Amino acid sequence: MSEITETTKTAEATEASKTARVALVTGASGGIGRAVAQRLAADGMAVGVHYAGNKAAADETVAAIEAAGGRAIAVTGDVADEDVMAAAFDAVERAFGGLDVVVHTAGVMILGPVSEYDLDAFDRLTRTNVRGTFVVAQQAARRVRGGGAIITFSTSVTRLSFPGYAAYAASKGAVEAMTPVLARELRGRDITVNAVAPGPTATPLFLEGKDEETIARLAAQPPLERLGTPEDIAGTVAFLAGPGRWVNGQVLFANGGIA
Asked: Which strands, in side-by-side order, build the sheet including 101-104?
């Protein structure tokens, strides 16, 4: 290969890194987060694949994106720790030249009835789901470029009121409260802020601890008569991150019509 050709390709790659949209997806080592990261990469975005503890799974997500012709890096950090998350955002910006889309899928779900719920578990859940969302949203609000999108995650359980889900639903209710407020705080910057509220979705987090009868009952509830898939939710995120520019300050329930 000639030196001129090599120089031209390097210049083209540099220009592409400046113009391509860039996303950071938290909790992207598996489940819905992984599906979102792969979908955004398939839509042409460079992706920061965030993980909390499972580096091997995050590396698998990165490898899958790269094998499909996309660009990705893995970044880590406790979503509730503002310093380590600032470092994760920094790493994505250094690698790809900026940040256009932040999708915060990371969260924990600890179930139990109110009367018996362990308060240490409650503190852990709210630290990750409420403070973690606030920390990520704060970093996103400071960094996302005009024309970008910030997407948080709630749950359809805030409306379905399943027994045992009080703590989890309460934490996601806080997410629903802060999302439209942030949309209004970003007035004039051409940045949308929305929440996605999945219904029952076939992920390891959702399926864990449920017997086949329970899963079948939940799958039968939507008019579409099935559980959602991570790819279903990723398609909703892709809409909000891309063409859905006139949707702002909303909670979008992606649940097949269950509620």
From this structure: 72-76, 46-51, 22-26, 101-104, 149-153, 192-198, 251-254
